[in-house]
Amino acid sequence: MASTRPPEFTSEQMTRIAKALGDPRRFEIFQRIAAARQQPTCGCLLETLPISAATLSHHLKELEQAGLIAVEREGKFAHLSLRRDTWAAYLKQLSKI
Question: Which residue intervals define the domain HTH arsR-type in the entry (predicted)?
Answer without folding.
Answer: 6-97
